[in-house]
Amino acid sequence: MSNKQLDVQIMGQSYILGCPVGGEDRLLSAVRKVDEAMCKIRDAGKIKARDRIAVLAALNLAFDQGDPTTAPLGDKALDDATPAAQERLSDLLKRLDHVLEQDGQLI
C-alpha cells in the first residue's frame, strides 16, 4: 500500500505526516485530538514548554484509552489530586525534564 503526505497543524506548528492511502480520516482525527489536548494544557497556563505539553497530552490520551471513566492528568486533576499523587506527578515531570535535557527530543 502506498503512502501519501498530509500537511497538518498541531498547536500552531506545521507538520508533514506520512499516511497510508485510505487512512487520512483516522490520522486527521488523531491530529485533532492531539491538537485539542495540547491546546487545552497550554491554555491552562501552568506549563509553557511545548515538549512538556506534548508529553502530558500523550499521557492524557493514553490514559483515556486505558480507562475512559477516569479523569485526565490535566491541571485541574493535578490541583485536585492527593498530595501523594501530586508528588508522583511532579516526580514524573522532573524525570521527563531530565531525559529531555539530555536528548533534546522525544523521538
Q: Looking at the structure, what is the overall shape?
A: elongated
The strand order across the widest sheet is: 1-2
Fraction of residues in H or I helices: 55-70%
- The total count of strands amounts to 2
DSSP summary: helix tally: 4
**Largest β-sheet summary:** 2 strands, antiparallel
Which residues sit in consecutive blocks of at least 5 with pLDDT less than 50?
none
Please indicate the count of domains. 1
Strand content: 5-15%
Could you give the order of the helices and strands?
A: EEHHHH
**Distance N terminus to C terminus?**
25 Å
Structural class: alpha+beta
Rounded Rg:
16 Å
How would you summarize what this structure contains?
By secondary structure, the chain is an alpha+beta fold.
In words, what does this structure look like?
The chain is an alpha+beta fold and 107 residues long. It has one domain (3-103). The chain is built from 4 helices and 2 strands; from the N terminus they run ββαααα. It has helices at residues 24-44, 50-66, 75-80, 83-103; strands at residues 3-10, 13-20. Strands 1-2 form a two-stranded antiparallel ribbon. It is elongated. The model has no long low-confidence stretch (mean pLDDT 77).
